[in-house]
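worker-03 picked up job from queue 'complexes'. Input manifest follows; two sequence lines, order preserved.
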Amino acid sequence: MYTGTVKQNRRAVIFFLFPAVAALVVFFLLPIGESVIMSLLDYDPLKGFSAIKFVGLENFKRLYTTKDLAIQFRHVLYYMVLYIPLVLMTSMSQALMLNKDFAGKKLYKILFYLPVISSWVAVALIWKWLLNGKYGLINNWLMIIGIQGPSWIRSQVWAMPGVVLAAVWKDTGYYALILLAALKGIDKNYYEAARIDGAGAWQRFKSITMPLISPTLFLLVIINVINGFQVFESIYIMTEGGPAGATRVPVEQIYRNAFTYYNMGYASALAWALAIVIFSVTVVQFSFQKKWVTYEG
Amino acid sequence: MKADRVVRRILFYVLISIIAMAAIIPFLWMLSTSFKAREAIHTIPIRWIPKEPSVEAYTQIFKLSNVNFVRSIFNSFYVSIMLTIIPLLTSAMAAFAFAKLEFKGKHALFSVFLFTMMLPGTITMIPNFITLKTLGLLNSYSALLLPALCNAFAIFFIRQNMMRISNIYIEAAVIDGASLYRIFWTLMLPLTKPVLFTMGLFNFMGAWNSFLWPLIVLSNRNKWTLQLGLGNMGTQFGNYQHYLMAGSLISIVPIVIVYIIAQKYVEEGLATGGLKG
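worker-03 finished. Artifact:
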């Protein structure tokens, strides 16, 4: 470690840390307290400070009595139930393929990865158009095999599955990349030994691959749950929470309440409810992990 | 035995090509639509190659009265480059202090930085809006830049790389009379180039694609980034899908170029834990 006179060292430490620490305090630490206080207020920033009212837990009560919270959470849970198994399957199959050596791998990787690097705004617009009830590609293809497709984004039943399709398409390559890194970490000797013992491909996958990448899979489930609770761009661009509120989700509602209706108190209460739920679910997930995650000794 | 292997190889390529098709068909659909005229987009059956290709969309989106598309492209480049370089520098500075300098409360402070990674953005979003409004910084790019100066993810990874640099170099430089500022600039930064490059790419892509925070702090149309312009086009021109697809295509191209040039770094950066998705 460095050296030099104590005085010079201290001045240097302050210099190097100042910008990051200042931003940390102003934009991350103080806001935690500010947000708690705001959740207890009736606060419309357009009306000035005199209109601020202290309402105690009224905002939280309203979350409960209006059923807003329950409805939004039902929607994100539905989203996750569809999205997580699907995206894990698609990314797993991509990762298994990319784990082999073959000519043109680099090109395939680029193709798989294009959706990941594209912005959500562009992806949402593309998928909204793909899922167009009448002129969209998906329904026209369904028509070929004799299925009359739904009107997706305009249907209360099919809007969420439509968003999920777009999200699975966009995120598959990303999770495949993480799974691929985990697959590469598996010692090839395990497979050799299993092959000598006469284990088939499925056997090897089930008894070697799955247990050895289970920590990564577990991590992906956690990340997906945390991200799933916070789904926003896809919903905001594709459905705007509709039709008839069928895809209202917490972050989209926090945004709308805070920046469209200027109910900043209510929006802060919703933000805290969301944070607490995410935190609790993560803790519960970690405590259950021993049941199915295998860590190498 | 050999024939069996060939069949398998072919099957493998068929399968992986099907998956690749699934990944690129939506892009081809975007490309195809963007070169259609207004009547051609609402025609069944679908023609992948338009009968009369049209660049109508590409000329019209630059003439819209309520979205200045040219300006938003320029803004996006400006904002993304700024949000790449400046936060990278402040993160590298903090990383240097955490990796190589001794001070009281170092570990505690570092833990606080790591904690911010777990804090949902929705908690800080509203207070930060109020703070920036009070400072009169709404509708300025400082509103995007200032919160980005604290980037725990970058600090963490740059610090890890800096810790691997032997102290012998630093001590030798000190004996030669170099100040810590000089050591940081001429020794630490060059020695950590790869990780700086990876994090820089990461910042650039994040800034280019970011939507929610700019949406909150930039209401002035002249300040809009490409994503905001595109999002607004989506609500204003819902039925002009050729406009939207042309706009989407333009917004994707720069990031694809960056990706193809720096494929290795982009993949590394995301795999090491760009867990925000």
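worker-03 released lock.
The domain at 64-291 of chain A is CATH 1.10.3720.10 (MetI-like fold).
Chain A has two domains: 6-54, 64-291.
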